[in-house]
Amino acid sequence: MNYLFTSLCLCLLTIQSYAQPRTDKLLENLLETNRHPVFQEVITHPEAYRLQIIYTQIDRDAANKPSFKNYYFRVDSTEYFNPASTVKLPLALLSLEKLNRLKKPGVTKFTAMQFDSAYSGQTNEWHDKTAQTGYPSIAQFIRKAFLVSDNDAYSRMYEFVGQESINRSLHAKGYLDTRITHRFVRMSSDENRHTNPIRFIRKDGKLTYAQAAAYNRDPFDFSRIAKLGKGYYAKDSLIQEPFNFTERNKLPLASFQQMLQSVLFPLSVPEKQRFDLTPDDYTFLHQYLSQFPRETNYPKYDAQQYYDSYVKFFFMDSLHHQLPQDVRVFNKVGWAYGFLTDASYVVDFKHKVEYMLTATLYTNSDGILNDDKYEYESVGHPFLYQLGQTIYQHERKRRRQHTPNLSQFRIPYEKRANDNRPTVKDVDN
Predict the structure, then answer these.
(1) 424 within some domain
(2) Which residue stretches of the chain have pLDDT < 50?
(3) What are the Cα distances from residue 102, in Å, to 88, 107, 276?
(4) Beta strands 231-234 and 368-369: pairing type?
(5) Is residue 425 part of a domain?
């Protein structure tokens, strides 16, 4: 593995540092116990892999009230990593929050939507054949974004909330170092500032509510330069210079975990950092953060391609694609440009175990971006699986003063119907 370390050292991210990475001895010592060669390669050279980890112990008091203790390994909000699909989590939360604040009769997360186009690069979306109703909706976008990390679902929620509202809302909640600047389709920065007109319609097709096209006039702070690698492909040409992420999405690891915690344990985070959600929203989010694609009817995902651990990186074993019995993972992942990231809340109902684990690492030994030659399979996924097992086995042994009552996270999941509809394959994610 030394060749990979040497190559990675040559293409580290160029970025000005404003803080020292935070590391806690307990987690550092715990990581040393796993002697798997890939795991130790990454742990021994964490700077090369831009590794960051947050492990959160959860303990309950006699009244079952949870308390949280975070342990960090190289966590630094100024060290850029590409958040990829992890930004789908805040977009889902902001979409539900916007619906609740609209207070428009007949407009809910289940209401049919139609997207029109009004500016360069924009596209229409009037129907969704994966939905039971045949129409797009915020609920269906969230299902698709969480179950298999669908990219179109994210882009449509981005268009619903709007670039200006996305960033103003996140900053107002105290997530100051976050930045959401673009859809997941190729567009210019100007095109990403413009978002589509949208219609909410009734079952008979009549208009319920119309949202006008929007434009973001707020400036972004791009003063902190973030460049990665030694070259990148643009179409078929190799550009011999670092890839510039300065104007791309940014979601620091601690903010990402805090957002997930706010969904699962809203009272545990400051009121300012919570999202304006209803009890039904929380129930809905909990279900689709943890439900398996094979349990879902709409969309009807192909169970072989989208296996149980498909978006559960800490339990994604190359040999076994199922989670341990009685374990559920409430999480969101992202992968792009050699980065792999996962924020998870893990529950083991049989052994009465719960904890949070969040991590990101970078696997791109040749230093070339957009060449589709990343070490996801040989380094990234094996490392995250070993990390997940290290923490899971530690939690299985960790003594607690009070046994947690985890019944609030027992969810009546869907059961796949036996029908003749074709399964959904090859999603753009």
Answers:
(1) no
(2) 1-18
(3) 21, 8, 11
(4) parallel
(5) no
- Per the structure, how many domains does the chain have? 1
**Domain of 25: which CATH number?**
3.40.710.10
Give the structural domain span for 253: 2-409
Helix, strand or coil, per DSSP, at residue 82: coil
Of residues 278, 279, 266, 245, the one with CA closest to residue 369: 245
Q: Look up tokens 């792009």; give the residue.
A: 336
CA nearest to 125, candidates 98, 154, 86: 154
Angle at 344 (CA atoms; ends 343, 348), nearest 5 degrees = 170
Angle between helical axes of 151-161 and 163-172 (0-180°, round to 10):
80
Q: Which residues contact 327 (CB under 8 A, 6 or more apart)?
A: 315, 346, 347, 348, 349
> Half-sphere exposure of residue 392, counting CA atoms within 13 Å on the CB side?
21
Tell me if 423 is assigned to some domain: no
**Predicted confidence (pLDDT) per residue in 183-225, tens digit:** 999 999 999 999 999 999 999 999 999 999 999 999 999 999 9
pLDDT number for residue 5 = 42
- Residue 417 covered by a domain: no
DSSP state of 424: B
pTM beyond cutoff 0.85: yes
Task: Convert the pLDDT of each residue in 299-356 to its tens digit.
Answer: 999 999 999 999 999 999 988 799 999 999 999 999 999 999 999 999 999 999 999 9
